[in-house]
Design goal:
By secondary structure, the protein is of the alpha/beta class. The chain has one domain: Ribokinase (UDP-N-acetylmuramoyl-L-alanine:D-glutamate ligase), CATH 3.40.1190.20. The protein contains eleven helices and 13 strands. The strands form two sheets. The chain has a nine-stranded mixed sheet with strand order 5-4-1-8-9-10-11-12-13, with helices on both faces. It is globular.
Length: 321
């Protein structure tokens, strides 16, 4: 286990999952049905995590498929502008499309209209995974939505196996999105298997509850995973903060209260801040706190990737609390 903790210090991540285009109704607080202008930004959980990592000094490569059209090219170009390695962003032709989200920057009752039919990222193949050198990576970060459909499911499972065999840390963000799955039962079964094979599992109370079939049993699963093979798990509880479970104990971390502009992006920021903290040499408790601070900064800003803080901004934010 000590070798896995040290593996984070390589400061190199492969993030597997989707990237898309977000269109934010502008100016903030404008309803979609009233908007006359929109601001674009990349979105998608894996894309946002990769940006958060790079913004805080880590090297991150995104492993995904993008559509062979202007939106796919936009996503790859924006990732590159942030400094994310796009070597493993392969295109898929035909009718596959990158996700497109039309969203509002509003703290309450924020509408999101998501277009995700024929999602390009679900076209990820085992051949795409075989081209990745996991031996050079500190960790593979998997977003659970990639497990929802084939061939992406098989490719993701292969990536997890190959990363483990190469000695890299395997991190699972459960990232449950009901619209991507055929049933809750399928999502629970597939994600539970993935959680058992990961070194780090992160999810909220609803997601861990999904895996057990009952909301009130989710914390017990997070604890059990940490006691039976995981380095640690993080059980997120919204405004109540989070509980981090380790093989020999646990600790709680609070949130950073801010005036939120929008409800989305917190989970991706949390993951990026936490992992960048570990890669930068911080202990786990400090790193979880950095994840919570990153989440707060993002929900208080416009967009997800554009609001993602660099290390200096994050340090100043924490010091002011």
């Amino acid at each position: 286990m000590d070798g896995l903790w040290q593996r984070f210090r390589r400061n190199r991540f492969v993030v597997l999952g989707r990237v898309g285009m977000d269109l934010y109704a502008d100016p903030p607080n404008t309803r979609i049905e009233e908007a006359r202008a929109y601001v674009s930004a990349i979105g998608g959980s894996a894309g946002n995590i990769a940006v958060a990592l790079v913004r805080q000094g880590a090297a991150a490569a995104l492993l995904t498929r993008v559509s062979e059209d202007a939106v796919g090219r936009y996503c790859v170009a924006e990732l590159g502008r942030y400094g994310v390695d796009t070597t493993h962003c392969r295109t898929v032709a035909g009718e596959a499309r990158n996700s497109l989200a039309v969203v509002e920057t509003r703290p309450d009752d924020a509408q999101t209209v998501l277009y995700r039919n024929g999602a390009a990222d679900f076209a990820l193949t085992e051949a795409d995974v075989a081209a990745v050198d996991f031996g050079a990576a500190g960790a593979l970060v998997v977003t659970g939505t990639a497990l929802a459909r084939e061939p992406s499911r098989g490719a993701t499972q292969l990536a997890m196996r190959r990363a483990r065999e190469a000695g890299a840390v395997v991190v699972l963000d459960i990232d449950y999105r009901a619209y991507s799955w055929t049933s809750r039962e399928e999502a629970a079964r597939v994600n539970l298997q993935a959680a058992a094979e990961a070194h780090v599992v992160i999810g909220n109370d609803d997601e861990f509850g999904l895996l057990t079939g009952a909301h009130d049993r989710g914390a017990g699963l997070a604890r059990d995973l940490a006691q039976h093979g995981a380095l640690f798990t993080v059980y997120k509880r919204g405004k109540a903060g989070s509980v981090t479970y380790l093989p020999q104990g646990q600790f709680e971390t609070g949130i950073f209260p801010v005036k939120a502009l929008k409800p989305m992006g917190a989970g991706d920021g949390f993951m990026g801040g936490l992992l960048a903290g570990l890669a930068g040499g911080h202990d786990l408790e400090t790193s979880v706190r950095r994840g919570a601070a990153t989440a707060a900064i993002i929900v208080a800003g416009i967009g997800c990737a554009p609001a993602s803080p660099d290390s200096a901004t994050l340090d100043a934010f924490i010091q002011n609390f």
